[in-house]
Predict the structure.
Amino acid sequence: MALAPHAVHHLYQYRKSLSTKPFGARGKKLIRCPLCLLGEQFCTCALRRQLQTQASFLLIMYNDEVLKPTNSGRLIADLIPDTHAYIWSRTEPEAALLTLLNSPQYQPYLVFPAQYAEQGQTVLNQVPMSMLAEGKRPLLIMLDGSWREAIKMFRKSPYLHSLPLLSFDPDTLATYALRKGSHDFQLGTAEVASLALGAIGEAANGKALSTWFDLFVESSLLGRNRRCREDLLPITDFTDAFELAFEQANNGKR
């Protein structure tokens, strides 16, 4: 049975309803699935699964980010059941977003580089197990946009400056081949989310998200025909890798 649309799917439809003209993404002539936004022949919706996890995610998305077929934030919502998504506003943040940040059910952590921390802002590289033991769910906040947009969202959102930062120094360079940032160490939103899952002790779930991201990238590139024939791998290599990682993640919860 197909899973119900998630928070990013709903946000996409809302943002699309506000548009006065179609979003001009590359490959705009490609016939896309309305949910995963991949070319219909490479649609991954039938493979989508929900992970068993203690994590919750909050995606704060720049205005047009939710419309981009290359957006990887939606991959988090594909696998993590408790995912929330809002469009960022500099002057009028949504009341529901602020309520979520103050909910006693959650302990929010902003996933963002330590170098941008405000004075006195706590910086961590993993979520303390004592916090999980208190019964609160870690709410992992992702600022979803280009690198410049993410910095702007952070700097112009005072409600984020009192939250602890969860920050990483990844050992491997980005593999995000669709829309790399201006620096090699910058990762896609889903890649950073996989690191965040590892930081709360869910490395297997992080691996599942990482392989879901790999499948997304490969499916996107195949839809654009941007690979040389000799560089192509069977798409089943990526679907099999995801299904294996998902099975390993779920078996670890039993």
